[in-house]
Amino acid sequence: MVQENSLDLQKVVLACMESLNLARDPDEQLTIDKEAPIFGQDSPLDSLGLVSLLIDIEDALADEEVEISLSDEKAMSQRHSPYRDVPTLVAYINSQLEQESAT
Amino acid sequence: MNTSNLVERMRSWPSEIALVTGTKSTQYDELISEVESWLERLADAKITAGSVVSIEGDYSPTTVAALFAVWMIDAIAVPLAPDSASHHDQFCETAEVQFRIQLQQDEILITSTQAEAQHELYVSLRERSHPGLVLFTSGTSGPNKAAVHDVAALLNKYETPRQRLRTLVFLQMDHIGGINTLLYTFSNGGCVIVASERTPRDICQAIEQNQVELLPTSPTFLNMMLLSGEFDSRDLSSLRVITYGTEPMPETTLKRLAQKLPDVRLKQTYGMTELGILGSKSRASDSLWVRVGGDGFETKIIDNRLWVRAKTAMMGYLNAPSPFDEDGFLDTGDRVEVDGEWIKILGRDGDTINVGGSKVDPAEVENVLLQLEGVADVVVKSEAHPITGQIVSALVQLTTSEPFKEFKVRARQHCKELLPSYAVPARFRKTDQPLHSSRFKRIR
What is the mean pLDDT of the segment spanning A1-24? Predict the structure, then answer.
C-alpha cells in the first residue's frame, strides 16, 4: 500500500510514452506533457501503438512489483475510454490500484 | 450473369447515384459512359481478350470503370491499391501483367510490359472466353500468393436481386471484400461510398453525411470505433447492417456493439481470397455462432477444422500448388466449434498470428530479431489481447548486459525498418531459459 502510493504514476506513463517515441517516425511523435492526449482524434497513436504503450506501462509497473492489467475487458467496457489522455489513464490506473488494495 | 448483363442491369437505373468519392457523386449513366470511354482506350492500346492488365489506383469512377471495361472484353484484371504501392512491380511480375494501367488524380498512364502471360490458368480462362481477376493474399507468411478467379463464376452469385443499400466500401479494390462490395451494390442499384481515410472519425463522418446503411468492416476496426467515442458524437441512425469478418470477433466487442447500436443488425461474414465471400447467417446480433454455406457453398469439418467447397472459389494460385483436395474442398485452417448446423470460428490453426486481421508469420519476426547484436535466441508467438485480438510477443535470450528497456527501443527500431507495423512485437520479455526443444525446434 505504501509502495503503491509512493509511485509517481504520471512519471511512469510519460516515461513510457517517451520511450515509445524513440521508435516512432518524427511526424508521429506523441506529445510528452501531463495533459497530453493518448488515443483519439488529437493523437497520432493508432491501435497498434496504443497496445504497445499499455504493455510498456504494465511492464514498467511490474518492475515496481505492481501487477496490473490496463487492457482487460474492464478497461474496454468503461463508459468513457480511459485511454483518452494522460490524466484519464493515470486516474484509471489509480482506481485499479485502489480496488486491488481494497480486496 | 456476365459483365455485359451486369452493365445492362446498371443501365436500368441511370439517374441513381452509383459512387460517392469525397464530394463527388457519380450516377450510373455517368459510370457507364466512363466504361464506354475505357472500351475505346483499351482498343487503342491493343488490349484484347485474354490480356493481363493491372489497374493501379484508388477508388474513383475511372478506376471502377476500368475494371468493368477490362472484364467486358474478357481480359484478366489485376487490381492493385495504393496501400501496396511498394509491391506493385513485384506483383505485376508474378501476375505476368502485360499492360499496366496507372491512375493518379486525373492522369491515365497505359504501358505495355512485353510479358508473355502463358500460365496454364490464364490459358484455361482464354479457352473458356471468360474474364479473370487476380487477387494477392495478404500477410507476411511467405510470399503473397496470387489467386486467379474466373469472373463468370464470381458474378453468378449476384444474379438474384437483393436489397438496394447505401454501402461504405471499407476494403480496397485489390481485396475480395472490396470487389464483393462493388458487385453486390452495383448489381442492386445501390450506392458505394468511399471514405477519405480508414479512421474511425472519417468512416463515421462518411456514414453520417451519406446516410450509409451497410458497413462491412473488421472486428478490430469496430473495437477502435468503440474506443474512439465516435459512436456517441455522430448521428449514425441510417445504419441498418454492420458485417464483420477477416478475423475472430472478441465476444466483449460484439456485446458492447450490440448494446451501443440496438437497431443495427450485426452479421458475421466469412470470406477468403481463395473462396470468395460465403453467405452466412448469425444466430443473433450478439452471437458468435454462425451458419455458413448455403447456396453455392458446402462445408465439412475434419478434426475441428473447417473445409469449404465453393462455386466462387478461385481456379488456383499462379505461384503456389493447388490447395484443394480431390473433391475440391479447401482447408481454411480455421478451428471451429460445432453445435448442430451452427459453427463458431475460434481462430487459425497453426502458428500464424492474426493482429487485427493482418497475418504475421512468427518465423519471419524471429529472423529479424535474431539479426540484432546480443540476441542469443528468440521465440515469437501470439498472445490474446482485447484490442487487436492477438498481439506479437517476443521472448528473448540476451548476451548483453544492457538495461532491457534500452534493448526494447533498439529492437523496435530495427523491426520497424524491416517489418510492417503490425508485425513489430508489442510485448518483449527476457528469459535465461533455453527456448527450444531437445530436437532444436522452437517452443511456441
Answer: 81
